[in-house]
Specification:
The protein contains six helices and five strands. A hairpin with a 3-residue loop joins β1 (about 65) and β2 (about 70-75). The chain has helices at about 30-35, 50-55, 60, 100-120, 160, 175-185; strands at about 65, 70-75, 85-90, 125-130, 145-150. It is globular, with a radius of gyration of 20 Å. By secondary structure, the protein is α+β, with helices and mostly antiparallel strands.
Amino acid sequence: MLARMTSEPEQQTEPAGVPDGFGRLWTPHRMAYIQGENKPIGSSAGEGCPFCAAPGKSDEDGLIVKRGEHVFVVLNLYPYNGGHVMVVPYRHVADYTELTAEETAELAESTKQAMTALRAVSGAHGFNIGMNQGSAAGAGIAAHLHQHIVPRWGGDTNFMPVVGHTRVLPELLGDTRKMLAAAWPQGA
């Protein structure tokens, strides 16, 4: 329905919280990220790093999809899209150049396996894959290297993230973790 247009501003007659015809999608969980929840308090491994803490938890509690010898795959607590995972070395290093040859190889192979599992469970049409190296490059947790794998679908970027700055996720992270773990390539 189009509103009547006038040159004078309309007075708000309804008190806050009264339905006004606009649909709202509340995402209060994002406020935790904005306020820095789960961010390390320092740059060393023992200073609150969530990537160092996750392997000490159960797969379900840590949202770990797959554990390898040198790296693990974990769901992002603040995903850009449903199924957003990260490949993380167990070793607390900040820069890609600090990885050993074995860590680099397993990170690459785990990325391929994550893509395979995500295609199997979600029918992803494409992926954004990458690392932000350092705070200046946008790394939220710069002290512990991690590679993002974000599944994408045709038309998945609509007005919600672009204009509304809101992500709409169709399922709980625990459910996503179960499906990806079950679809992980065998023998990997």
